[in-house]
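hey m, so remember when u said the tokens were messed up on ur end? i reran from scratch. heres the input so u can diff it against urs
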Amino acid sequence: MTLIHEEQSNVFWSNVENFMKLEKMRLIFAADKIPDSLQRIIEFLGRHFPDIDVYGVEIGKYSAENQELLSTSFISAPKVEGKINSHANWTMEQFYKLLEAHDDGCVINPLNAILNFCRDNGCDYKFGCGTKYPSISINLHQKNLLFIWAGFFNRGFRCYIEIDLKKHAMFLDSIEWNEQRLRALLSDMPGRDEGYSSGLMWDSPQTLFINLKLLKNNENLNGFLNALTILMQAINNRLQIE
């Protein structure tokens, strides 16, 4: 048995959260006997959620002459004929339409500013593969700098930035660039306290989240872009890129 330490557990659940947002999941129902009722549920999920793999696993145990034998059989959800099991190919135009429809377009200006700033500083970006909601991964020299998500979450519709502080700290590999300093740097803006109190900025053990609504204020936006400049320079220095 492999024990998972607390730090590994945090990474694991962070990955689970990210994969669920991207709708990259595999559900496995394991039992000694898969009843007909559960098989119908598996088939129902397979018909209505084609981007999620759903399986049932029957585990049988047989004993004979002081020996035990375990056998497994799989029940998979049938794929619906004519249903394309693919991920969405999002475009920036679709992203903007989603923001205009559900967020009154109020975050488009800070979104444009961040994308243009990152592009001007050598970053590229690509869309995630979620079928319902888009995400953008912004990368600097093939290293993820930040994610931008949009969609309906537990507090309604929101478009927010996600920055994995732990991965940045591990990559920079320096006592100077620990998670605590990175969090302080990237949240250093005039509206920081208001952001935390209003739920427009929040933390997880290794991640910083910023709702783009907080960056409608130019002072907050400039503070965040200044922090990104420092982080980008640290990454360039780590890679010895001038």
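this time it looks ok to me. The chain has two domains: 23-76, 92-239. if urs says something different then somethings off w ur setup not the seq
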